[in-house]
Design goal:
By secondary structure, this protein is mostly helical. Helices cover 69% and strands 0% of the residues.
Length: 207
């Protein structure tokens, strides 16, 4: 349970007591059922997928990502420019990682349906094109072209189609950017975002 709680931050939807209870649930189905009781957004879909005789991890991840994207979309409506940029970056990274996962082997999925709105650099067409790449090198090249002039391009080329490294490198780059922004505009969202990213870094070890 302690390992599951590492790097998590309590929120109004999931306070500390809820996180502790979830960490002690023995199966994904039990976690999902608990989320339904807590009225967590997207929990019903997650519970339906988790309760199957043979749950598919990729489908569960997509359901979690859809719920995550919906929460970010709601948050962006009242966010400052910095936080809107962070949200867009997170969605671009999320879509890039999903594209790499699909291209690496999850070929029996509907790629266009896996795309999540909210990013700025990676559009649906470029996402679908990257999903169809037949090698790790091709995946990286297609993603880099689709990202245009985004700072993510350099990261994508460096990681050469490795989704795990993409998450770490992108988180590290965002943390550095928010540290700079926090020094320039300490009264806006950057200091809080930097704190959250530092907590995330504890589990990703990107510092």
């Amino acid at each position: 349970a302690e390992d599951r709680l590492a790097g998590l931050v309590p929120t109004p939807l999931l306070p500390e007591s809820a996180l502790v209870a979830l960490a002690h649930e023995p199966t994904a189905a039990r976690v999902a059922a608990h989320l339904v009781v807590l009225a967590y957004p997207g929990a019903v879909e997650i519970a339906e997928l988790a309760s199957r005789a043979h749950p598919v991890l990729f489908e569960l991840e997509l359901a979690l990502l859809r719920a995550f994207a919906a929460r970010l979309a709601r948050a962006s409506s009242s966010a400052d420019a910095n936080l809107r940029g962070v949200i867009a970056w997170k969605m671009d990274v999320t879509n890039a990682m999903t594209a790499l996962t699909i291209a690496a082997g999850a070929r029996d999925v509907d790629a266009p349906a896996c795309f999540l709105p909210g990013g700025r650099a990676l559009g649906r067409e470029g996402f679908v094109d990257a999903c169809a790449a037949d090698s790790r090198l091709a995946r990286g090249d297609r993603l880099a072209r689709a990202l245009g002039e985004s700072p993510l391009v350099g990261i994508v080329r460096e990681i050469a189609g490795d989704g795990g490294r993409l998450e770490r490198h992108a988180s590290s780059a965002l943390l550095a950017a928010q540290h700079r922004a926090a020094r320039i505009e300490p009264l806006l969202s950057a200091p809080f975002v930097e704190f959250l990213l530092l907590v995330e870094a504890q589990s990703l070890d990107v510092r």
